[in-house]
Amino acid sequence: MTSIEVAIAASMELGRIIYPEYIEAAIRVGEDISILTPDAIITIPRRIFQTYITDWLEAVVEI
Residues of 34-46 as b/e, b for ≥16 C-beta within 10 angstroms? Predict the structure, then answer.
């Protein structure tokens, strides 16, 4: 997973833009992905993470 993918998922989860340069770490913990930013720790299921990326890619392709 790249910092761009992690930033997309974090942005979708938090409902605001998180830039890739603000991602401090992304760690897979079991079936979850934990994302550390300067002001939040976000934990989302891996399946939701993949759905966020797929939805984002579909939106970009449709534009």
Answer: ebbbeeeebebee
Spatial distance between the Cα atoms of 62 and 34, rounded to a whole number of angstroms: 29
C-alpha distance across the termini of the chain, in Å: 24
Q: What are the tokens at 5?
A: 């993918």
Q: How far is CA 19 from CA 12, 22, 29, in A?
A: 12, 6, 22
Could you report the average pLDDT of every consecutive run of 10 residues in the chain (63 residues)? 91 93 94 94 95 92 80
**pTM reported for the whole predicted model:** 0.83
